[in-house]
Design goal:
The chain is built from ten helices and 15 strands. By secondary structure, it is α/β, with parallel strands linked by helices. The protein has a seven-stranded mixed beta sheet with strand order 10-9-8-7-11-12-15, with helices on both faces. Strands 1-2-5-4-3-6 form a six-stranded antiparallel beta sheet. Helix 4 runs parallel beside helix 5. The longest helix has 14 residues. The relative contact order is 0.12.
Length: 286
């Protein structure tokens, strides 16, 4: 091991790790340069080990004083499964970032920050930034059931109000993200801006609703990504009829302009290979 490699490994030490929900884990990683430079909406690309896959992960929080970043990761494939098995005190091979264009933060009035499932984590720093800019922030946390909710207190600190919606009514109000926006409008609290992050179907139907209502909407996309520099083209999406690269042009786009159906098709390209790899890994490492 060279001296340089040794330094890199020391920098990216896993400081804290804890479960937030089934197959959802919080990681606090030592990455001083990233912690100091990151802005809401940006992400890092992580390699768990040498020779491993490069995976894009949104920065859910950062502590520049202690030089750490917080990542919230859902175990959905081999690389995230390997990450879930890392013990505290070890290090990931690489943390590259911050990458992507930061969220455009300005004072617009009432901002509804919608986090669906794992999307609660990346919407958290955006709520922080919008609130710090003087906006009234209502955060809408949505999930299939209460077991899949997390960051309740973190979102309350970042918001003026937090509302919870679950598909089955096990916590908060029974309903979907679209119901949450409709409820605000019915109350006469029409948002000046909606920021929505979560599963593609949630963002698609929420954007369809807000387009009908005439409410500007920003979504954050997470397609297949390899290099994070716009060179490989793996993360291309169609926005407003034009090709965009999520890693450099995004990850945030006008939700009313995104071709969500194309995004779904592109996300499924390697699904069978990913499934086989994950099944093999979890069988060997239960």
């Amino acid at each position: 091991m060279t001296a340089t490699t040794g330094i890199e490994r020391a920098v990216h030490t896993l400081i804290e790790k804890r479960a937030l929900a089934p197959r959802v884990t919080l990681y606090r990683i030592l990455a001083p340069a990233v912690a100091d430079a990151r802005k809401p909406g940006q992400f890092v690309i992580v390699r768990v080990a040498e020779g491993g896959e490069r995976i894009p992960l949104t920065i859910a929080d950062a502590d520049p004083k202690n030089g750490t970043i917080t990542l919230v990761v859902q175990e959905v494939g081999t690389s995230t499964a390997k990450m879930a098995r890392l013990p505290v005190g070890t290090a990931v091979a690489d943390v590259v970032g911050p990458l992507g264009s930061p969220t455009h933060i300005e004072r617009v009035g009432l901002v509804a920050c919608v986090g669906g499932g794992i999307g609660i984590a990346p919407v958290h720093p955006i709520a922080q930034g919008m609130h710090a800019a003087g906006n009234q922030v209502i955060s809408l946390l949505c999930a299939r059931n209460r077991d899949l909710l997390f960051f309740r207190e973190e979102m309350r600190r970042a918001s003026d109000e937090v509302r919870i919606y679950t598909d089955d009514g096990s916590e908060g109000k029974k309903g979907l993200a679209t119901d949450a926006i409709n409820d605000l409008v019915k109350e006469g609290r029409r948002p000046n801006l909606v920021v929505a992050i979560g599963p593609v179907p949630m963002m698609k139907f929420l954007s369809r609703l807000t387009k009908e209502l005439g409410i500007p909407t920003v979504v954050s996309l997470n397609p297949v990504m390899v290099d994070g520099t716009g060179m490989c083209g793996g993360c291309r999406v169609t926005v407003g009829g034009k090709t965009k690269f999520v890693c450099v042009d995004g990850p945030e786009f006008d939700g009313h302009q995104v071709d969500f159906d194309e995004l779904v098709r592109r996300q499924a390209v390697y699904r069978e290979e990913e499934k086989l790899s994950y099944e093999r890994f979890t069988k060997e490492h239960p």
